[in-house]
Write a sequence for this structure.
């Protein structure tokens, strides 16, 4: 049976640290505040929003939700975003994407104030990840994967890591962050030939295919650590599942993140951590 790399332990550790940092900021007259900008009422957005609000409340971060109708005009949307950008009492902005088709998503991403981009979607934030510098914030899911590896003391230096997926949300940024820890990283994607030969030779496998239960025992081998980033609702099994076929690989690998209860909860805590960091930077300025 594999060791379960549960997110709760990581979340509890983060919450303790963040609570102390929020109290320190409030003693100086600064209340860390997250603005959530949502267009429409997509179920996945509402679910993540609920989790983010709960996590913020746990550590004392204030949340302001701006919910816009799905048919809001492009001009009105950008006026709202600009107002949040300029509000000195807002330290972080979570802008839900994708946006409705009539709103230019790339323009919205470029218009977001990088210093408030707590979800790591702007070019400046991504540049900070790739250059390993303090520019913006890393994508929350990528940092959550790294936080789990750090918490459970998974050695990275000199290790072979296979990352399945090359999105800017997780695949490419987590690969860069792993390399900054001196791991040797191979990124696999839809055009990669013979993925199992690459993943089975790795010490650590980060799975972010975006396809439910797409990675099974044919891709993994004994002694590996597996970080499963995916989360989808399996209608046949009537439960949440990851990108890894958990029941098939648990008896093979050494350690694995469960779904649910793994990366997801840590991702929300990283979002809150970024809000606190943004407030600290604002105070220093």
């Amino acid at each position: 049976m594999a060791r379960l790399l549960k997110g709760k332990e990581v979340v509890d550790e983060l919450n303790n640290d963040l609570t102390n940092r929020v109290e320190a900021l409030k003693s100086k007259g600064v209340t860390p505040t997250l603005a959530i900008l949502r267009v429409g009422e997509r179920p996945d957005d509402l679910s993540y929003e609920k989790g983010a609000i709960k996590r913020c409340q746990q550590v004392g971060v204030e949340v302001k939700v701006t919910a816009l109708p799905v048919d809001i005009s492009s001009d009105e949307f950008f006026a709202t975003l600009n107002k949040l950008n300029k509000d000195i009492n807002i330290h972080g902005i979570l802008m839900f994407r994708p946006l409705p088709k009539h709103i230019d998503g790339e323009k919205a991403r470029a218009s977001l104030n990088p210093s408030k981009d707590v979800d790591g979607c702007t070019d400046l934030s991504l540049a900070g990840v790739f250059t390993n510098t303090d520019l913006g914030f890393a994508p929350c899911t990528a940092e959550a994967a790294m936080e789990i590896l750090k918490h459970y003391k998974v050695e990275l230096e000199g290790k072979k890591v296979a990352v399945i997926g090359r999105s800017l949300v997780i695949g490419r940024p987590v690969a860069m962050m792993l390399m900054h820890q001196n791991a040797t990283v191979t990124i696999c994607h839809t055009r990669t030939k013979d993925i199992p030969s690459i993943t089975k030779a790795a010490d650590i496998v980060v799975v972010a295919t975006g396809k439910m239960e797409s990675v099974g025992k044919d891709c993994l081998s004994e002694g590996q650590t597996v970080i499963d980033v995916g989360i989808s609702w399996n209608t046949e099994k009537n439960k949440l599942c990851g990108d890894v076929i958990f029941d098939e690989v648990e008896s093979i690998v050494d350690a694995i993140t469960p779904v649910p209860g793994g990366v997801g909860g840590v991702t929300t805590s990283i979002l809150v951590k970024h809000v606190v960091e943004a407030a600290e930077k604002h105070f220093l300025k």
